[in-house]
Amino acid sequence: CRYLHEATMQNAEGTTVDLYIPRKCSATNRLITGKDVGSVQINIAHVDANGSYTGAYSTVALCGFIRQSGKGDAALTRLWDEKQ
Question: How far apart are CA 17 and CA 20, in angstroms?
């Protein structure tokens, strides 16, 4: 008799954690699948008035669709302007 085992992943404490947590595109709110090889996640550093890194950052995820259509730069600028 064969038993089917579900694929589970456990951390050091023995708590079950997800194998894959999908991201969402910051520009379109689409899910970024594991097969979207054109997607990127960018960390934007926060700086003070002197231009020194403060240790904080904002994360932006862009899906491959946005990058392939040539709208990645405009989307990143729009998202950053909305955040400020």
Answer: 9
